[in-house]
From TrEMBL, chain A:
Domain called Transcription regulator PadR N-terminal: residue spans: 7-77
Pfam families cross-referenced by the UniProt entry: PadR
Coiled coil: none
Identification of the protein by name: Helix-turn-helix transcriptional regulator
Automatic annotation (TrEMBL), chain B:
UniProt signal peptide: none
Protein name in the entry: ABC transporter permease
Membrane topology category: Multi-pass membrane protein
Keyword Cell membrane: yes
Keywords: Cell membrane, Membrane, Transmembrane, Transmembrane helix
Organism: Prauserella cavernicola
Cellular location(s): Cell membrane
Xref: InterPro entries: ABC3_permease_C
ABC3 transporter permease C-terminal domain: residues covered: 197-310, 646-754
Organism phylogeny: Bacteria, Bacillati, Actinomycetota, Actinomycetes, Pseudonocardiales
GO cellular component: plasma membrane
Domain of life the protein comes from: Bacteria
Transmembrane segments: 191-214, 246-268, 288-309, 330-349, 361-382, 642-662, 699-718, 730-754
From TrEMBL, chain C:
UniProt xrefs under InterPro entries: AAA+_ATPase, ABC_transporter-like_ATP-bd, ABC_transpr_LolD-like, MacB-like_ATP-bd, P-loop_NTPase
Organism of this sequence: Prauserella cavernicola
Entry annotated with the keyword Nucleotide-binding: yes
Gene3D superfamilies per UniProt: P-loop containing nucleotide triphosphate hydrolases (3.40.50.300)
Native organism taxonomy: Bacteria, Bacillati, Actinomycetota, Actinomycetes, Pseudonocardiales
Protein name: ABC transporter ATP-binding protein
GO (cellular component) term, any one: plasma membrane
GO MF annotation list: ATP binding; ATP hydrolysis activity; transmembrane transporter activity
Length: 174, 766, 226
């Protein structure tokens, strides 16, 4: 899963402090494993270097000075490409898929499209497996079936998510 | 146990939400049991009725033993002929103050007074009755009450007369008292046998109705009960549950039947059953029989319901999965049929027409058993027939396969039909054949219609009265005298009918006749040249009169061209008597006058009879054969046909209803496959035709078997009675037509359902 | 590659208050296996029924081999379904009183084929779907999987151009479902019949060549968009 793309996407709705970013990330995706400050700032500096974000002024007040970051056009394009590209179907994908769905919702993009793209990719692999299975021996069949069942589980989860997008949107959008 | 019954009740009247089929089943069971009870209760009153009637008729028996101190009643039985029936009037006169009064009267009518029974009063209102009324004259002053009657519609008339006029009469009885002890009721074996056959024919369809009603729409219930059974409900519990449901209908039916009986009893008095009318108050069922009815009829309904469930109980899984049914037990079905056939067959070894009452019993029992047996064998027969059917168009295949899967309802439909149809063929053929046995003579009519034949002691006095009557065109005199021909040992008597040519023309087709001619009608015992002697009979033996020789030139007239009076006689003109020995018929010869008319014969007969009324019983006047009677026979045959037709149509309606229910049930059940077929492009007409065949096959089998069975039981019975066979094609035609209609109707009613089911809805998983 | 065999464009269908279809596009090419996916109640079956000419859409067009299905009379559509289409439903489509063999022979017999000929061909098809021994049995006496194979045989016996299968494995376990799907797609492919396969299961849809997704009564077909 890509933390840098997640942070980039979280910046899309508007400029934020590094601290805000960390909090937003932890709320939506941390699932008990919070992001370290160091990781946030190192990621942001990498994004700065690649021209995907830029600084948008410093806010003075109590505590340390706080830099605000904002996404560049190059950054928006990067997010869009990422969301639009299917993940390589493989087991234990849901973290990435979930992140993508939530980010699509947060950024007002079509989560359904994300899901459809993913389904297509999954089905393509499943078709390949099915074809292999039909031609293969019992061992092939069993191995393929294992993979097929896992992929099917992913897809089922996707369907379930798709069916609950409205509810999810309410939860993730404050 | 009570819990199971209650569960059954709940399933029957299910908490207010009763399924349409269950409700229909309940109603039909109620109706069937109700009708059966309503018919059985009057039947159970038969013994009461018979006892009461024999008690009354014993009470009416006149006793002529002189009793001192009693002035005898002069009583003369006067038969007034009015076509094919006669009215028995009793002419009465007291001989003194202490004269016994006949039962049913409160006093002895005075001269000019008439007391008539209600039946006689009704009769007086008919065209033929009005002539009787005219003959009797006088004034009706009262009604004969129940003690004076046998049946409620008996035609009894008491006519008052002057004692002096009766006193000298030879035919008058002197009655000193009335009444002997009753001799017991209905004992006639043949009668019992006949009644039992009719009862079986009438009741069997009803019982079949009851049993099939309690199994109507059963597939759904069977499936439900089978499901319960699979859940672990014991066989006994399932039986109790089923019993409770049909018990509701049976008990309601009992109440309905009892109610119907009580409500309709007063109306029985107005009901003309085969020309007999009963007293409503005599309809008191015998208590043991009532108990039997109350136990047996609901028992049958419940039993049928439980019996129908044997498959559910034995193999519930098969019911749930539409499996093949178990084999049925056959031996008792064959046994009943066999015994019936044997009984019927055995009567064929007796001589035609000569059978005694045992033959009658054998016939009745045989017919009844054969009918029951055929009804019981049918499910098997239909199964076998259908199992053999193969191929055909897809719709035919649907129907045949469906019947192969479930032909129980169809068979019950068929068995009901067979019994009723076969029964009606038997009964109507008997009635028809009896109607046919009217003597063949008498159909001949003379050119100028004869309206009345007058004879009797004072017939000569009638002559001027008749001639004065404007409706009567002419009156011809005829003398009838027996002539003894041949040797004394081997003598034969031939009737001589003497009259002038005009008179003889009223009796036969004499053609151009001249005085001196003699005609032989049909096969006469005398031939030309025979010599015979006139003879008359007295208490002390034959008295011979003058001799006469039959002329050689006899003219022959076929029997069909002569009246029944003239058949096998010699018609002789007076000239022939004079020329051949100058003999005249003796004084004792019977003399009759034949009145003819040019107008309406019936009206002329009525006026002639009225004109003769002053002569009373001393002159007999009767209409020629066929003037009034033909109508009556037709009427009673029509009434019988009506009853049989109604019964047949009723059973057909029940059959159609059962078929309809079956169709509806199966169509609903096949919702998915039907919808799938229709989606796959199978046209609705194919499915509709399948449903038509499915209804038509069993009904056709039923009608064909019924006609065969009907003729099968009718032939030996006709042979027993020596009657001719003729089938009432009209009745069979109507029933067959109605069968076709029933099938069409049942199919047509299923169509909308079929259309609805084959819409898309059937495809959606529930 | 030839053009599409069956095309539905902008299909709308309303049942009472329910909008079952609101703008669905779909195309089926000859010989392809097209999976129609989507959650339950999304309008998959309705779409299938429209394409098969079982129901007429409220608006939109359906073209089969260049013929306008919407404009056809009911009788014409029935005849078309009988001659050109085959059907497999989830369950319960076999006529219970007919034997399996007679069930399979039925479409041929309705088309006027002689009984002997029809039953011989039906027997071949039963063998082909590996239930040759069930010919004389009634549908009530066979298992769900066997029944579906008989249904597959019945759908294919008339050499249809398109087989419409609505959740054909919906009532079966995985293994039976797998076999039925293999038999169905193999047989259809070798007969060059297209299959419109309605399913919500990915594993079943994996037997297809292509899928479209129905969601809330709408569906887009990339083949049509391009
Ligand atoms: N004949 C019908 N009458 C009423 N509503 C229907 C009918 N057919 C379908 N629907 C409704 O249309 C919607 C789509 O149904 P359907 O096409 O069967 O969905 P799917 O097959 O995808 O589960 C559902 O809400 C369903 O209730
Ligand atoms: Mg569906």
């Amino acid at each position: 899963m890509s933390v840098s793309r997640t942070l980039l996407a979280l910046l899309e709705p508007g400029p934020r402090h590094g601290y805000d970013l960390k909090r937003a990330y932890d709320e939506q995706f941390a699932q008990g494993r919070q992001l370290a400050y160091g990781q946030v700032y190192s990621t942001l500096s990498r994004l700065l270097r690649n021209g995907l974000v830029e600084e948008a002024g410093v806010e003075h007040g109590a505590g340390p000075d706080r830099k605000r970051y904002t996404i560049t056009d190059a950054g928006v394009t990067d997010v869009e490409t990422w969301l639009g590209t299917a993940e390589n179907p493989e087991p234990y994908l849901q973290n990435t898929l979930y992140t993508k769905v939530v980010l699509a919702l947060l950024s007002g993009r079509s989560a359904t499209e994300v899901l459809d793209t993913q389904r297509s990719a999954h089905l393509k692999v499943m078709r390949e497996l099915t074809r292999r299975k039909t031609g293969g021996d019992l061992a092939d069949q069993l191995i393929c079936d294992h993979a097929l069942f896992h992929l099917e589980a992913d897809l089922r989860w996707l369907e379930l998510t798709a069916a609950r997008l409205d509810a999810l949107a309410e939860v993730v959008r404050p | 146990m009570i819990r199971d019954l209650l569960l059954g009740l709940r399933l029957a009247v299910g908490g207010g939400r009763m399924s349409g089929q269950a409700l229909l089943r309940l109603c039909m069971t109620t109706l069937g049991v109700g009708l059966a009870v309503a018919i059985l209760l009057p039947a159970a009153s038969a013994t009461t009725i018979a006892n009461e009637q024999s008690a009354r008729s014993a009470g009416q028996t006149p006793l002529t033993e002189p009793v001192s101190g009693v002035d005898p009643l002069y009583q003369l039985d006067w038969f007034i002929e009015t076509g094919d029936r006669y009215l028995q009037a009793v002419v009465v006169a007291p001989s003194g103050p202490d004269t016994p009064i006949p039962p049913g009267l409160d006093r002895i009518p005075s001269p000019g007074e008439v007391v008539a029974s209600p039946g006689a009063l009704d009769f007086f209102d008919t065209p033929e009755g009005s002539t009787a009324r005219a003959r009797i004259g006088g004034e009706v002053v009262g009604e004969v009450t129940k003690p004076g009657l046998g049946m409620a519609n008996d035609q009894v008339v008491f006519v008052g007369a002057e004692p002096e006029r009766l006193a000298g009469e030879e035919r008058v009885q002197e009655v000193y008292s009335f009444g002997v002890p009753p001799s017991g009721g209905l004992r006639d074996v043949t009668m019992v046998a006949l009644v039992s056959t009719v009862a079986v024919i009438l009741l069997l369809p009803l019982l079949i109705f009851v049993t099939s009603a309690s199994r109507m729409g059963a597939a759904q219930r069977e499936r439900r009960l089978a499901a319960l059974r699979l859940l672990g409900v014991s066989a006994r519990q399932v039986r109790r549950i089923a019993a409770a449901e049909s018990l509701v209908g049976a008990l309601a039916g009992l109440a309905l039947g009892g109610g119907l009986f009580v409500a309709l009893r007063p109306l029985i008095a107005d009901l003309d059953l085969f020309g007999v009318r009963f007293f409503a108050e005599d309809f008191v069922p015998a208590w043991p029989l009532v108990a039997l009815i109350v136990l047996v009829v609901p028992g049958l309904a419940v039993g049928a319901a439980i019996f129908g469930l044997r498959r559910t109980i034995v193999e519930p899984l098969g019911v749930v999965r539409h499996g093949k049914p178990t084999r049925r037990r056959m031996w008792w079905r064959w046994a009943i049929t066999g015994v019936g056939a044997l009984l019927l067959g055995s009567t064929l070894f007796t001589e035609e027409r000569s059978g005694g009452p045992e033959v009658g019993v054998a016939l009745a029992a045989g017919s009844a058993l054969l009918l029951i047996g055929v009804a019981a064998l049918l499910p098997w027969a239909v199964e076998k027939t259908v199992a053999r059917l193969r191929g055909g168009s897809p719709s035919w295949q649907f129907a045949v396969r469906r019947l192969q899967l479930e032909s129980g309802t169809a068979s019950r439909v068929v068995s009901g039909l067979v019994v009723v149809l076969a029964g009606s063929i038997l009964i109507q053929t008997l009635v028809g054949a009896i109607g046919l046995t009217e003597p063949p003579g008498g159909t001949w009519r003379s050119q100028t219609p004869v309206v009345a034949e007058v004879s009797g002691e004072r017939a000569d006095e009638a002559l001027p009265l008749l001639e004065a009557e404007p409706d009567v065109a002419a009156v011809h005199e005829i003398t009838m005298s027996p002539l003894n021909v041949g040797a004394y040992q081997s003598s034969a008597t031939v009737g001589l009918v003497t009259g002038d040519c005009a008179a003889l023309a009223t009796q036969a087709e004499v053609g151009d006749c001249a005085d001196g001619d003699v005609f032989a009608v049909g096969t006469s015992a005398a031939t030309g040249g025979d010599t015979g002697r006139f003879v008359s009979y007295s208490d002390s033996g034959p008295v011979f009169g003058p001799e006469w020789t039959v002329p050689d030139e006899l003219r022959h007239i076929p029997a069909e061209s002569a009246s029944s009076l003239a058949s096998s006689t010699l018609l002789v003109t007076p000239g022939a008597l004079e020329t051949l020995g100058g003999a005249t018929p003796p004084e004792a010869s019977e003399r009759a006058y034949f009145a003819t008319t040019t107008g309406d014969p019936k009206a002329a007969f009525v006026s002639a009879a009225t004109a003769l009324s002053p002569l009373g019983w001393e002159a007999d006047i009767r209409p020629p054969m066929g003037l009034f009677d033909s109508v009556r026979i037709d009427e009673s045959t029509a009434a019988m046909r009506g009853i049989m037709l109604t019964a047949s149509l009723f059973v057909l309606a029940v059959a159609a209803l059962s078929l309809l229910l079956l169709s509806v049930e199966q169509t609903t059940e096949r919702r998915r496959p039907l919808a799938a077929l229709s989606a796959a492009g199978v046209p609705l007409p194919v499915l509709a035709r399948a449903s038509l065949w499915q209804n038509a096959i069993p009904v056709t089998v039923g009608v064909v078997l019924a006609v065969a069975a009907g003729i099968g039981i009718t032939l030996p019975t006709l042979r027993y009675g020596g009657l001719e066979f003729s089938v009432d094609a009209g009745l069979i035609g109507v029933v067959c037509g109605a069968a076709v209609l029933a099938v069409l109707a049942a199919t047509a009613v299923t169509l909308p359902l079929l259309r609805q089911v084959t819409r898309l809805d059937g495809l959606r998983a529930e | 590659m030839t053009g599409p065999l069956l095309v539905g464009r902008d299909l709308h269908k309303t049942f009472g208050a329910t909008q079952a279809l609101r703008g669905a596009d779909v195309s089926v090419r000859a010989g392809e296996v097209l999976a129609v996916m989507g959650p339950s109640g999304s309008g998959k079956s309705t779409l299938l029924h429209c394409l098969a000419g079982i129901v007429t859409p409220d608006s939109g067009s359906i073209e089969y081999q260049g013929r306008d299905l919407v404009a056809m009379s009911d009788a014409e559509r029935s005849a078309l379904r009988r001659t050109d289409f085959g059907f497999v439903f989830q369950f319960g489509q076999l006529v219970p009183e007919l034997t399996c063999l007679e069930n399979v022979a039925l479409p041929l017999r309705l088309g006027g084929v002689k009984r002997k000929v029809a039953e011989a061909k039906a027997r071949q098809w039963l063998e082909r779907v590996e239930v040759g021994e069930l010919g004389a049995r009634r549908p009530g006496d066979v298992s769900g999987g066997q029944g579906q194979r008989v249904a597959v045989a019945r759908a294919l016996v008339g050499d249809p151009q398109v087989v419409f299968a609505d959740e054909p494995t919906g009532a079966l376990d995985s293994l039976n479902g797998e076999t039925v799907m293999q038999l169905l797609t193999e047989a259809a492919r070798s007969a060059n019949a297209a299959v419109v396969l309605v399913t919500h299961e990915a594993r079943v849809a994996a037997h297809s060549d292509r899928e479209i997704v129905v969601r809330d009564g709408t569906a887009t077909d990339r083949e049509l968009v391009s």
